Amino acid sequence: MSATIDFTLNGAPRSVAGLPPTTTLLEYLRAAGLTGTKEGCAEGDCGTCTVAVRDAAGTLRAVNACIMLLPMAHGCAVTTVEGLEDHPIQREMADRHASQCGFCTPGFVMSLWAREPGEPADRQAITDRLAGNLCRCTGYGPIIEAAEVSAPAADALRSGETAAPARPAPGLDYEADGRRYIAPTTEAAFAEAAASHPEATILSGATDVGLWVTKRLFDPPAIISTRSVAGLDAIEERGGTLVVGAGARLSAFARAIAGTAGIAELMRRFGGLQVRNAGTVGGNIANGSPIGDLPPALIAAGATLELGHRDGGRTLPLEDYFIAYGRQDRRPGEYVRAVHVPLAGLAQLACHKVSKRFDSDITAVLGAFALTLDGGTVRDVHLAYGGMAAIPKRAAAAEAALSGRPYTAETVAAAAEALAEDFSPISDMRASSAYRLTVARNLLKRDFIERTDPAVATRLARAADVAA
């Protein structure tokens, strides 16, 4: 276990000691004079702070430096825009006037640079890759054109590089300013640390905790990271069940379920690429957010949750994990270990996300519905919602109105009315209570149309979708 934060920055080795563990990578970079990486929102939304990180396993990812804590760079290779030398994407961005004020440009360049050779570079793939980058000057047209035109030359350039061999993620036990950051390499060591320090904050991707640091000035005495725990990020199929390790990144989970239409579309709209590259499945569950996108979908699919502990683990239905706002069924020293998702439930699942922006936005209402029909009759139904209550929650009254009845517009309309028995949503900056209830009802009706008449267009298409 190292006591210093060791990584490479634009090819040069760095070893850090003495800085608080909650120092962000962005703060470190700018203090080091690498000011091409900008601070815009300080919450992982605008992408102006995007850098590329290659981890010990060799995976290259575009990430938000503004919410990535510096110790998370341990054992990684970090590349900023200053580390590029006349790259094809830089030339095309300049030649096509894809930069105006220039503030956001380095972030765009780094998001596009962090694409491995052979990864898709068509118009749709590029717009998905740039969903976590905001530009308010030029618009996206010339930026997308620059990305498309530069892709072949960028692939050829990257193909000539010698890939570093994959290696186990290194451990870290770092102390500074009276604060401690522990990154164990085995689950046994992680479980011991979690049990010995129940007051510690468990950190995975920092897409939530990072905001606590930048917005609330959160300064925990101890952090225990999942990032280096071998095997905690595994995703595998076991006898009709997809077992997803808590440390699996959202982007890896998205690839694993890419062939399952219902949840694949949800994952495509889950934050921006930088958020999906950092955030984890376990983190999205463990933080207990009432507007987290994954829990309603996994609840509707019939998922169970596996909790770990030094003294032995346990499993429970995922829906039972959420007790009340800010309260989950997790005892001192316990941690989310894995989620078990029935493939049959995923196959029946449809997800409906409503937000103010199509891409990279927090959900106002999310409906996730899994139905099994038998001769036109509803035999099994799971309706789960996010944004409608203090926790992600099933709609028991609406389910009762559907179960055992003919799957007709009249039955669905009755189930939609029953949602008023299930939820009394709040009003906030994202949506009013009345709006949320109306939308929740309409999502049930839209789901009915999609299941019974799939030729009807019910989903919003972006310009890129139409152009393709």
From TrEMBL:
Keyword Metal-binding: yes
Alphabetized CDD domains for the sequence: fer2
Gene Ontology molecular function: any one: 2 iron, 2 sulfur cluster binding
Domain 2Fe-2S ferredoxin-type residues, every copy: 3-84
SUPFAM superfamilies: 2Fe-2S ferredoxin-like (SSF54292), CO dehydrogenase flavoprotein C-terminal domain-like (SSF55447), CO dehydrogenase ISP C-domain like (SSF47741), FAD-binding/transporter-associated domain-like (SSF56176)
Keywords in alphabetical order: FAD, Flavoprotein, Iron, Metal-binding, Oxidoreductase
Record bears the keyword Coiled coil: no
Start and end residues of each FAD-binding PCMH-type domain: 174-346
Database matches in InterPro entries: 2Fe-2S-bd, 2Fe-2S-bd_dom_sf, 2Fe-2S_ferredoxin-like_sf, 2Fe-2S_ferredoxin-type, 2Fe2S_fd_BS, Ald_Oxase/xanthine_DH-like, Beta-grasp_dom_sf, CO_DH_flav_C
Pfam families hit by this protein: CO_deh_flav_C, FAD_binding_5, Fer2, Fer2_2
PANTHER family linked: XANTHINE DEHYDROGENASE
NCBIfam families hit by this protein: xanthine_xdhA
Name of the protein described by the UniProt record: Xanthine dehydrogenase small subunit
Protein source organism: Acuticoccus sediminis
Gene behind this protein: xdhA
